[in-house]
User: Fold this.
Amino acid sequence: MNTHNALRNLLLSSLLAASAAALPALAQVSINISIAPPALRYEPVPVIATGYVWAPGYWAWHDDRHIWVRGRTIAQRTGYRWEPERWEQRGSTYYQQAGRWAPDANYRPVKEPKAQKPKHNNGRHNEARGHNKDDKPGKGPKHDR
Assistant:
């Protein structure tokens, strides 16, 4: 009986460990250091294709120093604006804020004009052939006589 309980506990523990490993990590990494980042570098902004925005370069912390991460184009999100990565100073500590999409308060959706339907003349096709609607059927167009 004790062997059966030990085997059951081992199996349950294995299942619990496997299910915990399969769950996605929901934590966000926060970096805080006491060394100020260098001044931002100038990067020329290239011509950007429609549907993309420019995410400027920034200083990232790697191992024990700041490294420059070059700017890049990213796919645009309608109704949002890109807030680039940045460092915030609080007291003597610097905190890195990751870049993110933020709702754009100035965004106004563009309404596409509705396509106009062709005008229908209730089956009268004479006007399209150069006939007046006052013409009687069977008699051609009015001419000066």
